[in-house]
Amino acid sequence: MKATYIYGAGDVRVIDVPDPSIQQSTDAIVRVVRACICGSDLHPYHHMAPNSAGNSIGHEFVGVVEDTGSEVRTVKRGDLVIAPFAWSDGTCDFCREGLQTSCRHGGFWNMGGVGGGQAEAVRVPLADGTLVAAPVTEDSPLVPSLLTLSDVYGTGYHAAIRANVNSRTTVTVIGDGAVGLLAVLSARGLGAEQIILMGRHKDRTDLGREFGATDVVADRGDEGIERVRELTGGDGTHVVIEAVGYMPAYEQAVGVVRQGGVVSRVGVPQYESAPIGGRVFYGNISLTGGPAPARAYIETLMPGILDGRVDPGRVFDREVDLDGVPDGYRAMDTREALKVIVRP
Amino acid sequence: MKATYIYGAGDVRVIDVPDPSIQQSTDAIVRVVRACICGSDLHPYHHMAPNSAGNSIGHEFVGVVEDTGSEVRTVKRGDLVIAPFAWSDGTCDFCREGLQTSCRHGGFWNMGGVGGGQAEAVRVPLADGTLVAAPVTEDSPLVPSLLTLSDVYGTGYHAAIRANVNSRTTVTVIGDGAVGLLAVLSARGLGAEQIILMGRHKDRTDLGREFGATDVVADRGDEGIERVRELTGGDGTHVVIEAVGYMPAYEQAVGVVRQGGVVSRVGVPQYESAPIGGRVFYGNISLTGGPAPARAYIETLMPGILDGRVDPGRVFDREVDLDGVPDGYRAMDTREALKVIVRP
Fold first, then answer.
1. What is the value of pTM for the model shown?
2. Which residues of chain A have pLDDT under 70?
3. Any chain B CB within 8 A of the CB of A233?
4. Beta partners for A262?
5. What is the ipTM of this complex?
């Protein structure tokens, strides 16, 4: 089958690899119906050292179950399933607490002999814990929105949930990528009435307004901080969702959070140390966030998609086939595309 | 009257200053019955640059109201009152939310023409918002415990509350100073069943055991982390209260917190930047804490003291008069004394 591999910065190729097959009685084989390219895939695309062996890539997909191991009970051949970006057993204490990214027996795609989502098919370990069947067929127009449950919608929601967004909290979202926009959608769904979106790409922030942003701030740095403060009576917002991962975004987050508030980080940090002394400590500001246990949120968020109340799939603005994946990376890197959906 | 001033590192003096007097109609004048020396007072004692003008010092006191401005309603001459370490109006949005340290009209002792607690008397601004009357007289044996409501008990409680300590959370407390010990007492009061106290002073950790610590770890660094992990099935605890403020304590906190857990900082950080990338982000670990709004907790915590259920005043192990304050600093600095109470 065809699968996408990365061999170093800027070097993404679609190659032929052996078809995946059941290896454990808890595995399922899933034929990929739609996958996508993630903002976090751009980090190795920017920085990976050359490696002639390459590594499979892609961690978001929706597909149809083609085969299951003897112990698999919750999904069956023919089901359309959503795969979150971490696989997990669904039974350990962390899974029961809703932190499947810390599952005691789980892991991540593209590691330890498990392939990636930007491929024709994937072997899914611990299928009962990992996969969620959706009550639609693969030709449903809802598939793109269901695909966002693999990662970006769950990640935006995680940011909002960990920060306790509700009808009494004002919110700033930093970043107009797919996660930022779906954090806006999530915050609106949780009842927030003022949602300030910080982003500079008008087509994206326009979508953010449709998702529920009440204000858009295109300025960055001190000007951006000043603008958010003007919009909030000088105080900043109770919650700041940081959906970028670079230090200037973190500094902006600390600059616009109200005293006693929360900075919720879901952009993968491209830094190790950051200021948590002065303003963070003295302002009783909390930091939260991390990789979203997307699996935990699928049952919560899917009904809104099935009902047509929300349409998170609007973040996809370009479609490619598998051979088009390398150009999809280029288009996301140059910001020609917000988020690329892959139809193998 | 006599008041304590600091003129630089190691240079604490008791000097004569004018008696305080009512300046605003919302002021009260409080004659100090007991004050104390705080671990955070040791920071200027270690690091303050020489300053010939000096600065008053001390921010924890219980006293008797001697005079009130014309607008003061909630306390009256003769009341025994507890003063939290920040003064606040009690009416702004931050105060109503219980974050009196961020009061829009409040401030801190020893700044802006307001004196300090290690003195014979103090002018208390915004007396209605700031002071809480206690239903005992100044000769009550409960006065030392009530004095801990000024700061250290409220600070330990703040650490536990901000981290949502309850009967289902395991807790590590780093630091066997007064705040750490009272964080143990607070965590126990909130129902925590496993409380690991990290500290090296046996007399202090023995008191910690009486306050509710179930385990004591004297090791530090990697050995200390390893020891806490052994006590928690390898996972660390849901909550870590960091009551020291130095980088090794922060690193220890991150090392012993369970994935998905919370590090709650109430030691004033003696660093600006710290690692919040790798383990903190990927483990979905939250950071919280900050200066405690001690005022917010006085009504909650005072009944336990009045009932005799808790005796946080046991942290005081040395008493001095005002002339003995400089020696009290020396004794706390050398760790001869855990916490020094001052009887003017």
1. 0.96
2. none
3. no
4. A239, A286
5. 0.95
